[in-house]
């Protein structure tokens, strides 16, 4: 089943789904790019000392990885005019196995007058929801 065209969306349409595999190397690259070198993203010992299960992915990395399915569907990052979420869980990244972030995006609302669609994003890791109220507003073609 292919995603609906941007100009032909209806509430409930699934616009995409993907699995994003994250590794510890990805976390190190993200830390270097973002400047976020908090040791909970690199050291199991430090992460566990503050009550985490081990190293976790950066929240903003998780958020960015999740919206990628919407950007791919829209075909233009500039078409995403708003995006927000609440962080509801962590993405523990095992040193050997990494972590899989499961993402599905579906149309939650269409505003024909504004020419936009709200896309709701579900993101889980290991069956646990990690983002809540993850929503992107996408500008539809004229």
Description:
By secondary structure, the protein is α+β, with helices and mostly antiparallel strands. The protein has a domain at 8-22 and 58-139: Hotdog Thioesterase (Thiol Ester Dehydrase, Chain A). It has three helices and six strands. The chain has helices at 24-34, 44-49, 59-74; strands at 14-22, 80-87, 99-111, 116-125, 128-129, 131-139. Strands 1, 2, 3, 4, 5 and 6 form a six-stranded antiparallel β-sheet that branches. A hairpin with a 4-residue loop joins strand 3 and strand 4 (116-125). It is elongated. The model has no long low-confidence stretch (mean pLDDT 95).
Please supply descriptive tags for the structure shown above.
alpha+beta, 142 residues, Thiol Ester Dehydrase, Chain A, elongated, 36% strand, six-stranded antiparallel beta sheet
Topology readout:
Blueprint: E1 14-22, H1 24-34, H2 44-49, H3 59-74, E2 80-87, E3 99-111, E4 116-125, E5 128-129, E6 131-139
Antiparallel strand pairs: 1-3, 2-6, 3-4, 4-5, 4-6
């Amino acid at each position: 089943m292919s995603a609906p065209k941007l100009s032909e969306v209806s509430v409930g349409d699934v616009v995409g789904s993907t699995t994003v595999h994250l590794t510890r190397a990805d976390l190190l690259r993200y830390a270097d790019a973002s400047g976020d070198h908090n040791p909970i993203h690199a050291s199991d010992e430090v992460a566990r000392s503050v009550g985490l299960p081990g190293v976790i992915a950066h929240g903003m990395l998780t958020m960015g990885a999740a919206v990628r399915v919407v950007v791919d569907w829209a075909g233009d990052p500039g078409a995403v005019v708003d995006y927000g979420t609440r962080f509801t869980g962590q993405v523990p990244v095992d040193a050997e196995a990494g972590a899989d972030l499961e993402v599905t995006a579906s149309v939650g609302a269409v505003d024909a007058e504004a020419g936009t669609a709200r896309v709701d994003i579900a993101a889980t890791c290991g069956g646990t929801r990690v983002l809540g109220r993850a929503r992107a507003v996408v500008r539809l073609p004229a």
